[in-house]
Structure to design on (297 residues):
């Protein structure tokens, strides 16, 4: 099963990065957005990112100016932007990276199942929904995987490749090879909540919030403890502010609803209160910390 042509649906924060790493990996890519403005914005981000990367390669002496310009040109030429879904028909792999809404994703995969050639593989980049539900909606559950990239896609070196009970082994292998060709370390995971990374990370953030809520330690000391005691780039409360309190709460609500007996899935009271008050983290200027742009106050 050889993947040559890849469709990416949604050219936002994650989608534009997936388009770029796939093009860098040598795949022909159709970048699809329903909205022309959003498509132009996504393609513009890719062009900016490719130029920046080329500049860095020149600085490091890995490429001459001419080689860098040629690399940007050939990589960009691999990408075809489109607002016409019919352009996805003959893709070998279609990766969905639209907004995190299960009903919209299911309806999109229903449509794709009718449109895209039968041999194509479908993948979702969802962070929180069961892959099997979208796989069922697509009408081809045996040819469906999760491909969970990390933000920013161009820099983060991991992709989680998620299989359901119905995913054919050769489909899984082809998806894994695609992730590796995009320059990522690919890890395999079953279709379980949060896959590997978020299943470990979100309960860790929850425990930090619960410590703060109980008054066991201050937010600054909890963060310093994990940053300097474990060598993490930032502490858990700063991380929660970066991820967004609303995103964190939405993930937890889904898990608590589906797995009420799992003790690791808890919703701290302060998380609910802050979201209710519109304190969503760095993006709104306040979460567990106050923020001015990228700087904690
Ligand atoms: N943001 C993260 O850190 C992160 C990390 C891993 C996975 N994810 C997952 O990736 C997916 C995308 O997240 P994002 O942060 O890139 O969101 P985003 O809002 O930045 O981008 C979504 C894009 O999809 C487009 N879109 C929406 N509906 C569409 C449709 N029907 N057809 C075509 N395009 C459509 C929007 O115009 C937008 O450009 C979500 O499932 C999210 O859970 C996000």
């Amino acid at each position: 099963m050889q993947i040559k042509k890849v469709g990416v649906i949604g050219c936002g924060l994650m989608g534009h990065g997936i388009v770029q790493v796939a093009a860098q990996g040598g795949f022909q890519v159709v970048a699809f957005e329903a909205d022309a403005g959003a498509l132009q914005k996504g393609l513009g981000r890719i062009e900016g990112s490719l130029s920046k990367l080329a500049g860095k390669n020149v600085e490091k002496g890995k490429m001459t100016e001419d080689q860098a310009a040629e690399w940007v040109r050939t990589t960009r030429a691999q990408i075809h932007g489109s607002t016409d879904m019919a352009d996805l028909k003959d893709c070998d792999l279609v990766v969905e990276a639209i907004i995190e809404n299960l009903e919209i994703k299911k309806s999109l995969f229903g449509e794709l199942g009718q449109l895209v050639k039968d041999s194509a593989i479908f993948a979702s980049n969802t962070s929180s929904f069961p892959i099997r539900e979208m796989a069922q909606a697509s009408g081809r559950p045996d040819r469906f995987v999760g491909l969970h990239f990390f933000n920013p896609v161009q820099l983060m070196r991991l992709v989680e490749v998620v299989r359901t009970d119905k995913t054919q082994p050769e489909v899984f292998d082809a998806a894994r090879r695609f992730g590796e060709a995009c320059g990522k370390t690919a890890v395999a995971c079953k279709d379980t909540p949060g896959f590997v990374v978020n299943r470990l990370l979100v309960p860790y953030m929850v425990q930090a919030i619960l410590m703060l809520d109980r008054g066991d330690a201050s937010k600054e000391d909890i963060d310093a403890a994990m940053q300097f005691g474990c060598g993490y780039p930032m502490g858990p409360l700063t991380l929660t502010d970066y991820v967004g309190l609303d995103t964190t709460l939405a993930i937890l609500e889904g898990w608590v609803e589906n797995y009420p007996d799992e003790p690791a899935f808890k919703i701290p009271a302060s998380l609910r209160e802050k979201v209710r008050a519109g304190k969503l983290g760095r993006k709104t200027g306040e979460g567990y910390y106050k923020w001015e742009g990228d700087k904690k106050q």
